[in-house]
Amino acid sequence: MTLRQAQDGGVPTIRLVPLSTGGSGIPFLLGPSLGTRVARVWDPVLPLLGDHPLYGWDLPGHGVSPATTSGFSIEELADGILAAADDAGLARFAAAGVSLGGVGSLAVALRAPSRVARVTMVCSLPKIGTAEAWAQRASDVRASGTPSLVQGSASRWFAPGFIAASPTVSSPLLTDLMDVDDESYALCVEALAATDLRPAVSTLAMPFTIIAGAEDEAIIPLPAAEDAVASARSGTLHVIPNAAHLATVEKPAEVAAILLSEAS
Question: Domain 16-263 belongs to what architecture?
Fold first, then answer.
């Protein structure tokens, strides 16, 4: 199994979603997890973010962003996000994202440090997973489509008992996954597989935060997160109990409190 070349395309078209444009605080620019729409995965947090304009961006082939058939790098994804921010008139903002959205947010901060006040990776790391595992994921989705990922995603995204306790929250997220464009999802996976931003974290001038779910298999055990924040000039790690990979959905109050405390 081999990865396709991740940089054979160009800057993907990324579209912003105005989530709540009122408020006088610094805007938040929010990114989604792979397989989700930003408006859905951040929805439980939005009412808790107070006096801040809120914007989100969707990955290629997810939500409002158009599908793509061309490979792209995480740096090119960041350029697409920044172009969308330009179109929305966002000169400076706090960047936060879940999973792949966190990697994209970090890439934005590295690409345009003067525009990013702080960067927060939620259930995310500067390098996530292995190239072999991502190659298998890309192959699987090309062969069987995103609906084939629902069962595995349900077990990764949510801590035990959450789906049964909160079906009206979890079910729409899993339905959204089935609607994601298959090839765009695979290309997102390949961009992620080719990415290792660990060496660049030490160059960040702004505060850098990782929020980890204590039951997130992508982050736990914690040494990679601990190493990442230790390498930053101003790094902080928060671990949220009883949360897995979508902490914004499972523990929105805790995520919002961290974001607000760091935006004050």
Answer: 3-Layer(aba) Sandwich (3.40)
